[in-house]
Amino acid sequence: xxxxxxxxxxxxxxxxxxxxxxxxxxxxxxxxxxxxxxxxxxxxxxxxxxxxxxxxxxxxxxxxxxxxxxxxxxxxxxxxxxxxxxxxxxxxxxxxxxxxxxxxxxxxxxxxxxxxxxxxxxxxxxxxx
Length: 129
Fold this sequence. Notes:
Blueprint: H1 5-16, H2 18-35, H3 37-40, E1 41-42, E2 47-50, E3 53-55, H4 80-88, H5 93-96, H6 98-108, E4 110-111, E5 114-115, E6 120-122, E7 126-127
Parallel strand pairs: 1-7
Antiparallel strand pairs: 2-3, 2-6, 4-5
């Protein structure tokens, strides 16, 4: 798209003003970064692997019951119980004593004698809640 001679002159004058030109670049970069804000700072994981299935809570609502919990509200992914449910594949011991369940799973890959399907979550770099 060709600019008219008047607009070409305006652009040259704008570029000659270094402060204005660098401000345009900085604000443009900040705008591009803001498009990915959900992936930079959030209180839900980007990806969760639970029992071999991939969940994307940053895009879709998943209730706590989807991970073996008790409530049909959105899972509080920062809660130790929910993190334990994800990491142990929904072991019921997580609801009572998540620390013990995680230590059992780490020791021999079993929780209360049941084999664990280990899960994981990828979090945004800045935790926000």
